[in-house]
């Protein structure tokens, strides 16, 4: 069980800001692959991973990051603060 | 209080004065502020909407300030960033730095700006009468970060 | 009004807000301010006294702003500098710059500071209970100027 | 006839902020030489020209600057604004 959060156009494409996912995925990449296989909207959101950023437990990381012990994963486009 | 994330508008002058007042006796002769204002580049912007990642935002900003304080001898640093909806000419965010020497205060403020532009979880969406579009990250902002990795 | 030279204290926050208000509609998304504060480094400063050259001061500051506006695409720039007597923790001077991009606003503010430190006719004298001494120009300030002569 | 102004420790050493000087000096350097010859306080103030700056008609210049047509010359130490 892991909380998955989406922001900006990723959120819009998937259609929800947050969901709880039942998964045994060991890495972010494995979780992405599971989500992609679910429904076209996930496949669309995760089509180009170079356009996405990921945070595990609110720390920026990359798609190879392990998910062991993680409670929260977030996907979003490159940030545009300031 | 070094980080504030809020929906409400803020008064740049009042924030700057409060920041300076906190430096009383700290021997911080140099105070730099940066303020970002909503621009209406395409001459049709109604609303700038900013989404953020509550919880991570505060952590990311605090981590960026920690980095700045490790790199420069700062008396203090402050970041205030809004989210939600705002109009052209409204202030989006500000940073303030205090140091003994102006070079440190300037560099640290630029560093904070470069990092929070591309590493703090904010996303801008521009709404006009006709359309709405997410602002794309700029290559220059990523390039600006590289100068600090020396 | 881009230059102000005055004896009286000033309110940094009010000046910063007034500067931002003047940029309404100017598409200046980036505002940088620098404020110099009287420091009491030797822990005994009673009064910082600043002498200036009336007439030349205003001309020199205006010329420095002209140079900055030629080098960077600025929407606006402002310099306020006090003379006379002031105490530790009081503001001595401020500069403000407005530009479309933050890099221009930061660089122009640093340029203004470097030039007015060494090229505007102000002289500081530090008074303590025991003594009074003119502040000596620092080599670093002269060095800081050189980076702009590219 | 030219107005000569002194600032900071130059003013203190010479003992006046401003005076009108009758001179035919063609350059700042020539004016300095005339002043030095007047009294010890001038010689003291102008002892080390590398420690001094000069403005003619409110424009920074150097000691080789001509004085033809000038109305105001100012001597002072390096500036310490900001």
How would you characterize the overall build of this protein?
The complex is a heterotetramer, with two copies of chain A (82 residues) and two copies of chain B (150 residues). By secondary structure, chain A is α+β, with helices and mostly antiparallel strands. Chain A has a single domain (2-76), classed as Beta-grasp domain (Ubiquitin-like (UB roll)). Chain A has helices at 8-14, 28-38, 40-45, and strands at residues 2-6, 18-21, 53-56, 59-61, 72-76. Chain A has a five-stranded mixed β-sheet with strand order 2-1-5-3-4. Chain B is of the alpha+beta class. Chain B has one domain (3-144): Aldehyde Oxidoreductase, domain 3, CATH 3.90.1170. A four-stranded mixed β-sheet of chain B has the order 1-4-6-2, sandwiched between helices. The longest helix of chain B has 18 residues, at 102-119. The model of chain B has no long low-confidence stretch (mean pLDDT 95). Classes of the chains: A alpha+beta (82), B alpha+beta (150).
Specify the helix fraction band of chain A.
25-40%
Please outline the major beta sheet of chain A: 5 strands, mixed
Write down the Rg of chain A. 12 Å
Q: Give the beta-strand count of chain A.
A: 5
Structural class of chain A: alpha+beta
Radius of gyration of chain B over all CA atoms, rounded? 16 Å
Under the CATH scheme, the architecture of chain A is Roll
Q: In total, how many domains does the architecture of chain B comprise? A: 1
- What proportion of the residues of chain B form beta strands (DSSP E)? 25-35%
Kindly report the average pLDDT value of chain A: 97
Q: What is the number of helices of chain A?
A: 3
Assigned CATH superfamily of chain B: Molybdopterin biosynthesis MoaE subunit
Strand order of the largest sheet of chain A: 2-1-5-3-4
CATH class assignment of chain B:
Alpha Beta
Q: Please state the overall shape of chain B, judged from the principal axes of the Cα atoms.
A: globular
CATH class (first level) name of chain A? Alpha Beta
| Overall mean pLDDT of chain B | 95
Task: Give the helix proportion of chain B (percent range).
Answer: 25-40%
**Tally of separate helices of chain B:** 4
What are the secondary-structure elements of chain B, in order, as H or E?
EHEEHEEEHEEH
């Amino acid at each position: 069980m892991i909380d998955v959060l989406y922001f900006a156009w990723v959120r819009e494409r998937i259609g929800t800001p947050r969901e709880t996912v039942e998964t045994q995925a060991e890495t972010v990449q494995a979780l992405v692959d599971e989500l992609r296989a679910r429904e076209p909207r996930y496949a669309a959101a995760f089509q180009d991973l170079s356009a996405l950023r990921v945070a595990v437990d609110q720390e920026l990381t990359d798609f190879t990051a392990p998910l062991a012990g993680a409670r929260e994963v977030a996907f979003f486009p490159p940030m545009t603060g300031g | 209080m070094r980080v504030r994330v809020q929906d409400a508008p803020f008064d740049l002058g009042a924030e700057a004065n409060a920041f300076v007042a906190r430096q009383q006796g700290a021997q911080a002769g140099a105070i730099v502020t940066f303020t970002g204002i909503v621009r209406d580049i395409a001459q049709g912007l109604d609303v700038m909407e900013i989404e953020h990642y509550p919880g991570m935002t505060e952590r990311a900003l605090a981590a960026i300030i920690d980095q700045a304080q490790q790199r420069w001898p700062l008396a203090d640093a402050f970041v205030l960033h809004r989210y939600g909806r705002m109009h052209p000419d409204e202030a989006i965010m500000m940073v303030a730095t205090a140091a003994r020497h102006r070079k440190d205060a300037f560099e640290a403020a630029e560093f904070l700006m470069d990092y929070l532009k591309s590493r703090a979880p904010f996303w801008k969406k521009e709404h006009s009468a006709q359309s709405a579009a997410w602002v794309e990250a700029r290559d220059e902002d990523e390039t600006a970060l590289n100068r600090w990795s020396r």
